[in-house]
Hints:
This protein is 0% helix and 65% strand. The chain has no helices and 7 strands. The strands form 2 sheets. Strands 2-3-4-7 form a 4-stranded antiparallel beta sheet, with no helix packed on it. It has a 3-stranded mixed beta sheet with strand order 1-5-6, with no helix packed on it. The radius of gyration is 12 Å and the shape is globular.
Amino acid sequence: SEDGLKIKPLLTKQLDWxxxxxxTKFGKVxxxxxxxxxxxxxxxxxxxxxxxxxxxxxxxxxxxxxQFYIV
Length: 71
């Protein structure tokens, strides 16, 4: 929905890894990503179903732990 949780990480080549968490009205969101060459491993722990925006792609992710590999 328009009012749902949206997660849009900035996967910059200027950093090799990021780990962060934020308290939202939906609950705590935890995210970390790391880069090995051109491959990025992204982990998102969401308190509820959420929309994950990667580049120009939108994915619906489930509540709990989610892991993605991006090349």
